[in-house]
Specification:
The protein is mostly beta strands. The chain has 3 helices and 22 strands. Helices cover about 15% and strands about 40% of the residues. Strand 8 and strand 9 form a beta hairpin. It comes from Pseudomonas sessilinigenes.
C-alpha cells in the first residue's frame, strides 16, 4: 500500500509537470507568432515615378487648372497595420525645390499646388512636413493593409491659373524627405510589439509641354444688298484679332472658300447654283489675302502690336473685302461662302 501511494504521487507530479511545460510552450508560440507579424510591417523609400501634365496649350495653361499625379512619390510600405494609427504615429513628407514651379526654356514659370489626395482638400505646403497619417489618408490608401504586396504613396498636382508662358518643355525637380514612425504590430491587451522607424529622401520630376495656340476673333463679313454687282460697296475697316502664345512667331492664312474659281483664284459665294465672285484683301490695299506662301500674313505684319505673340494681348490685322464688278449680275438671292482662317507656327 505504501509503495502504491508513492507511485500515485509520482504519477501526479509527472502529470502536473507535463501540463506546466505544455502551457509554457503555448505561450512562447503565441509571442513568436505576434513578433513575426510585426516584422512584416516595413516601409522604405524607393525611386519615384515622374508626374507629367502632358501637352497643354498655352491658352489652357493660363485659363484652366490642369491636373497631374504620380502613383509613387517615394514611400513604399508592406505589411498589415493591426490597429488604427495613434496620435504619436506619423508619415511625414517634406517637399522642397530650388525653384517655385516648373521652369521653361525662356525662364517662364508655371506654378502648381501639391495635394495629398485626388481633391483639393489637403494641400501640401512646400518646406513644411505634411503628415499622411492624419485625416485617414494612409488608411484610405490601404498602404499598410497588405502583408505581401508593396504599396506606394501617390501625390496629386494642380496648376495655378494665370500663367502667361511661352511654348516649350517645363520641368521641376522636387526633393521629398520622408520620415515615419508607427507601431508595426499589436500584442495582447493592445501592447505595441515594435515600431517601424525610418527616413529617406527621393527626387520627383514634374513636367509639362506647352504648345502654341491662339484665341481668334473674326467677325462675319456682310456686303449688304444691291440690285447689280457694281452697286456693292467695299467692306472696309474690318479686323481679325489674335491672342497667340507669348513669344510665338506665326503666319495667318485665309482659305479660298468653298467655291473658288480654279483659274484666277477668286472666291465665290453661291445661291441655288449661281455664283457671286468676291475677295478679301490685306489691310486697306489690293493684295489678296490667301493661305499659301507670301499670300499669308506674318505676325510682324499686324497693324496693332506687330511682332511675336503676346499671350494675353491681341494683335490686330486689318482687311477689306470687295465684290468683283467685272462679272455679270447673277439672279437675286442670298449668297453665302465660308472661309477658314488658319494660324501656322
Amino acid at each position: 500500500m505504501t509503495v502504491a501511494t508513492r507511485r500515485e504521487g509520482v504519477r501526479k507530479v509527472d502529470l502536473k509537470g507535463v501540463g506546466s511545460k505544455a502551457g509554457v510552450q503555448g505561450l512562447l508560440g503565441l509571442v513568436a507568432s505576434l513578433l513575426a507579424t510585426s516584422a512584416q510591417a516595413l516601409c522604405s523609400t524607393v525611386s519615384t515615378v515622374p508626374a507629367s501634365f502632358g501637352t497643354v496649350s498655352s491658352i489652357l495653361v493660363r485659363t484652366t487648372s490642369q491636373p497631374a499625379s504620380t502613383t509613387n512619390a517615394g514611400l513604399s510600405c508592406t505589411g498589415a497595420l493591426l490597429s488604427l494609427l495613434a496620435t504619436t504615429d506619423h508619415f511625414y513628407a517634406t517637399i522642397t525645390s530650388s525653384t517655385s514651379g516648373m521652369v521653361g526654356p525662356t525662364g517662364d514659370v508655371i506654378n502648381y499646388t501639391l495635394y495629398a489626395n485626388n481633391s483639393t482638400s489637403y494641400p501640401i505646403t512646400r518646406g513644411t512636413a505634411f503628415d499622411f497619417a492624419r485625416n485617414s489618408i494612409i488608411d484610405l490608401l490601404g498602404l499598410l493593409g497588405s502583408p505581401t504586396v508593396a504599396k506606394t504613396v501617390p501625390i496629386y498636382l494642380g496648376t495655378v491659373t494665370g500663367s502667361n508662358v511661352a511654348a516649350g518643355v517645363y520641368t521641376e525637380n522636387l526633393s521629398i524627405f520622408w520620415s515615419w514612425n508607427y507601431c508595426s504590430g499589436i500584442g495582447l491587451l493592445g501592447v505595441c510589439l515594435g515600431r517601424d522607424i525610418g527616413s529617406g529622401t527621393q527626387s520627383l520630376t514634374v513636367n509639362m509641354t506647352v504648345s502654341n495656340d491662339c484665341v481668334i476673333t473674326a467677325p462675319n463679313i456682310s456686303f449688304g444688298s444691291a440690285p447689280v454687282v457694281s452697286a456693292f460697296a467695299t467692306v472696309s475697316g474690318q479686323t481679325i484679332n489674335l491672342a497667340c502664345t507669348k513669344g510665338s512667331a506665326y503666319t495667318v492664312g485665309l482659305s479660298d472658300g468653298q467655291n473658288p474659281i480654279s483659274v484666277g483664284g477668286r472666291r465665290r459665294m453661291v445661291s441655288s447654283g449661281n455664283y457671286l465672285a468676291y475677295d478679301i484683301f490685306k489691310s486697306a490695299g489690293t493684295t489678296r489675302w490667301g493661305s499659301v506662301g507670301s499670300a499669308r500674313r506674318s505676325s510682324t505684319d499686324a497693324e496693332v502690336n506687330p511682332g511675336n505673340g503676346l499671350g494675353t494681348g491681341s494683335q490686330v490685322f486689318n482687311y477689306n473685302a470687295r465684290i468683283y464688278t467685272d462679272q455679270n449680275t447673277p439672279p437675286a438671292g442670298t449668297y453665302l461662302d465660308n472661309v477658314v482662317l488658319d494660324v501656322g507656327f
